[in-house]
Amino acid sequence: MRRVDSARGSRADQADQRRAELLEATRRVVLERGLANTRVADIAKAVNVSGGLIHYHFATKDELITAMLRATLDIESARLDQLVTGEGSAAERLDRVLRFYIPQSRSDQSWLLWIDAWNAALRESAVRQIVLELETTWLRALEQVISAGVAEGDFTCEDPAGAAERIDAMLDGLIIRYTLHPSVLSRGRLLEHAHMAAAREVGISPDAFSG
């Protein structure tokens, strides 16, 4: 009996590993070709497997794409939780969240993926739902760190949820501009805008951030 359970566990582990490999390959292909232009055949070629094997794990291309986006969201959500609940002052925690949200460069893979997902969300309801969850996760993280700062007496903000929405809307617009036109808006200037807006929302000086 134990041997049977062990065999089942081993097969399940192998299946999970294969699915993870396919999801990572899907992410790479999507970043190269875009969501709309990615085919199952492209992903199969990237990992040197048959399309049939991919369909064994994921019934359709849409299911595969959705699973890849959700896996990416889960990783980023877990990281956000660590930043929000980590050590440091309220200003330090807010600074970490802002820096996590802002892309590291114009070629930041996470942001390129989500910008592409926003476009696909106009037509694909499953992608639209994941994008909504991404926005909700980010807004919740911002609201949580602002509310904690208010409770600790470091911030002054009567409406943390509203403050989170305003910071989010401003950053989304600036990040799109930065991604498309890096010569017009540098990352340093973008971070400066983020610090200025966040400081105004929580009643502190921009100098309270680490710079």
UniProtKB/TrEMBL annotation:
UniProt keyword Repeat, yes or no: no
KW Transcription regulation (keyword) present: yes
HTH tetR-type domain span: 16-76
Keywords: DNA-binding, Repressor, Transcription, Transcription regulation
Record-linked InterPro entries: BetI_C, Homeodomain-like_sf, HTH-type_TetR-like_transc_reg, HTH_TetR, Tet_transcr_reg_TetR-rel_C_sf
Residues in the DNA-binding region annotation: 39-58
Stored Pfam families: TetR_C_6, TetR_N
Transmembrane regions listed in the UniProt entry: none
Protein name per the record: TetR/AcrR family transcriptional regulator
Originating organism: Nonomuraea roseola
